[in-house]
Amino acid sequence: MGKAYSGDLRERVEARIAAGYSRREASRHFGVSASFAVKLAQRVAVTGSVAPGRQGRPPGHGKLADCLPQLIAWVEAMPDISMPELAAKLEASTGVVAHPASLSRALLKAGFSTKKRCWHPSANALMSERIGRSGGRTVSPGCAKNPIAWCSSTRRRRPRR
């Protein structure tokens, strides 16, 4: 995304236009585009200010804004749900079609992490106890359902011992 011109340059271009020079001449004099000078003069005529307008989309106005509480509830209920599964569940229940990457970005903004963790309280207690003894290289012991766990230090899959 582009960056707005400084307030000082905007004021000087506007002062030159106000002094009677044409917009195109003012743009050539200060080395900016003619469209900048034209749009700046229009902005001053409408708002009375040379300040740049706000760039970007306002936060909280995307198509996932209304669905975010439901997404958070689903992720808290099933922490190991994948983003494609979450996208399919969202489409089935609300009709909103969202790309898995969009869901991931929305959940990251909501405070979730992408780190794989075992969410069983007993496993987390055992995990922290084992990390303290072994120096950090361990596999989560708590998820008996899954025979393959994630190694916390190398992020490679390896069989559980």
Characterise this structure.
The structure is a single chain. With 161 residues, the chain is mainly alpha-helical. The protein has three domains: 7-47; 68-109; 121-159, no CATH class. The chain has seven helices and two strands; from the N terminus they run H-H-H-H-H-H-H-E-E. The protein has helices at 7-18, 23-30, 34-47, 68-77, 83-94, 100-109, 121-134; strands at 148-150, 157-159. Strand 1 and strand 2 form a beta hairpin. Helix 5 (83-94) crosses helix 6. The protein starts with 6 loop residues before the first helix and ends with a strand. Mean pLDDT is 79; it is low at 118-156.
Tell me the radius of gyration: 27 Å
Tell me roughly what share of residues is in helical segments: 40-55%
Mean pLDDT: 79
Strand order in space, largest sheet:
1-2
Measured between the Cα atoms of the first and last residue, the distance is: 50 Å
Largest sheet: 2 strands, antiparallel
| Uncertain stretches of 5 or more adjacent residues | 118-156
Strand content: under 5%
Keywords:
single chain; 161 residues; 50% helix; mainly alpha
Question: Quick summary of this structure?
Answer:
This protein has 161 residues and is mainly alpha-helical. The protein has seven helices and two strands, in the order αααααααββ.
